[in-house]
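TASK: fixed-backbone design
INPUT:
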């Protein structure tokens, strides 16, 4: 009962905060391609973005199950949690693999909002989803690493002070396993000058993402997370958290579509009857609802395992897959239900429709999730 009370307190607290940022606010942000600075500041001030940080560092000391509810409710309210979610999922690597000095240096400032860690530098143009094939290289020169290379589709760089960055410290052709020789760093973006150049990428949604070039960017040795060369295994803590939290955003989007569609279908009268009385309208909405409920169970399972420190790669990937597919089904049901009004910006469906498409391909393509399940769970031959 106490756990259920806590969950409802989180949901009601987020709903109350989001009520101050109605859909008109998000339409304006979308139309202007603006970062929702006021919303992120409000989330930070209320402590929601710091809930995974231990209490001793000024955070909430809660688990990813609780963080998942925050992002889900933001999206269900008609908002978009993506501008702030990285501060949560980067905690997976920093909390589990960072040392005490690193936590003392960064976590209090992140919890208070004085410092932002909203950028996660993984993807590269010539590697894509094959992270072990990245070429960005960090060479140690005395007490610093000098980083050269480039990343692509790195979000929120322009609104972040720090970046969690993975780079090779040993060339791929010199390691026994391709996952070796990768190291994880915290890069301070504030003092790099021209050594880090950011080029924005225009996309179909209001999602600030960039191509980033590193030209001897400097990272002090003390900013290395864990041991040199073992960064890939540390990275997995972050990506599993990311998949669980993105799944939660998808669930929020899906429930937004179901809420809006079921209400509209019950009120909209055509040919003398509510359109929701027609099976062709109501059945797709009902199917989407059932898929969302099933996906929620997998999300909850993955989050529970993560919070217990149990390996959850399969569950996190499946949660992301099932939630994004269910959300997209709900998005299409909503678009068909609203008809012409679905593409009118004032009704907000088209904005959320565009946003719901992204998780099918990012942060990991659903095709890769199916390949992962086939190979690692069903023990079938690797397909890629």
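OUTPUT:
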């Amino acid at each position: 009962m106490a756990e259920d009370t806590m969950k409802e307190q989180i949901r009601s607290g987020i709903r109350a905060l989001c009520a101050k940022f109605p859909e008109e606010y998000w339409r304006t942000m979308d139309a202007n391609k603006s970062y929702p600075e006021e919303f992120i500041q409000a989330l930070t001030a209320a402590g929601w973005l710091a809930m995974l940080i231990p209490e001793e560092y000024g955070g909430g000391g809660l688990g990813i199950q609780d963080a998942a509810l925050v992002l889900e409710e933001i999206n269900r309210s008609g908002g978009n949690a993506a501008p702030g979610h990285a501060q949560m999922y980067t905690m997976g690597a920093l909390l589990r693999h960072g040392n005490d000095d690193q936590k003392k240096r960064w976590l209090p400032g992140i919890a208070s909002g004085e410092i932002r860690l909203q950028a996660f530098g993984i993807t590269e143009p010539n590697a894509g989803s094959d992270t072990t094939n990245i070429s960005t290289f960090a060479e140690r020169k005395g007490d610093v690493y000098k980083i050269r290379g480039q990343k692509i589709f790195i979000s929120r760089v322009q609104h972040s002070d720090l970046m969690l960055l993975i780079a090779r410290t040993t060339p791929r052709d010199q390691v026994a396993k391709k996952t070796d020789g990768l190291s994880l760093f915290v890069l301070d973006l504030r003092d790099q000058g021209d050594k880090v150049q950011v080029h924005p990428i225009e996309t179909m949604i209001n999602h600030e993402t960039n191509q980033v070039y590193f030209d001897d960017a400097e990272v002090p040795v003390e900013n290395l997370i864990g041991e040199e060369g073992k960064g890939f295994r540390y990275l997995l803590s972050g990506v599993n958290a990311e998949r669980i939290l993105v799944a939660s955003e998808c669930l929020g989007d899906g429930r937004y579509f179901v809420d809006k569609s079921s209400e509209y279908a019950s009120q909209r009268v055509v040919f003398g009857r509510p359109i929701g009385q027609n099976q062709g309208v109501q059945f797709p909405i009902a199917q989407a609802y059932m898929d969302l409920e099933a996906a929620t169970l997998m999300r909850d399972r993955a989050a529970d395992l993560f919070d217990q420190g149990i390996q959850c790669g399969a569950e996190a990937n499946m949660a992301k897959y099932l939630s994004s597919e269910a959300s997209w089904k709900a998005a299409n049901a909503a678009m068909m239900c609203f008809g012409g009004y679905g593409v009118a910006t004032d009704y907000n469906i088209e904005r959320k429709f565009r946003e719901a498409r992204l998780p099918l391909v990012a942060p990991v393509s659903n095709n890769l999730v199916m390949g992962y399940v086939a190979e690692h769970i069903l023990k079938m031959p690797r397909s890629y």
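COMMENT: The first strand starts at residue 117 and ends at 121.
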